[in-house]
Write a structure and sequence with these properties.
The protein has 73 residues and is mostly helical. It has three helices and no strands. The chain is 82% helix and 0% strand. The chain starts with a helix and ends with a helix.
């Protein structure tokens, strides 16, 4: 993935993803971490997912669920 493409996607979706993550975490730093993890996973993809915005939201939600499961152990 091209750096400029990733930057453009970050500028488009990061704020919305942050507020989505914040609705789960109720914590600013945890929400920022979820967003950065989602964009990191996007950067590691060889090809773009079909619907990038919804893919990013899905990654944020799943990462939050994984983190909550780890806390319970």
């Amino acid at each position: 993935m091209n750096h400029s493409e990733l930057e453009k996607l970050y500028n488009l979706y990061a704020k919305e993803l942050f507020f989505y993550a914040l609705s789960f975490t109720k914590n600013k730093s945890d929400a920022e971490e979820l967003v950065s993890d989602a964009f990191y996973q996007l950067a590691m993809q060889d090809i773009f997912p079909a619907h990038i915005k919804f893919w990013l939201f899905h990654v944020v939600k799943n990462k939050f669920i994984d983190n909550e499961r780890k806390k319970k152990r």
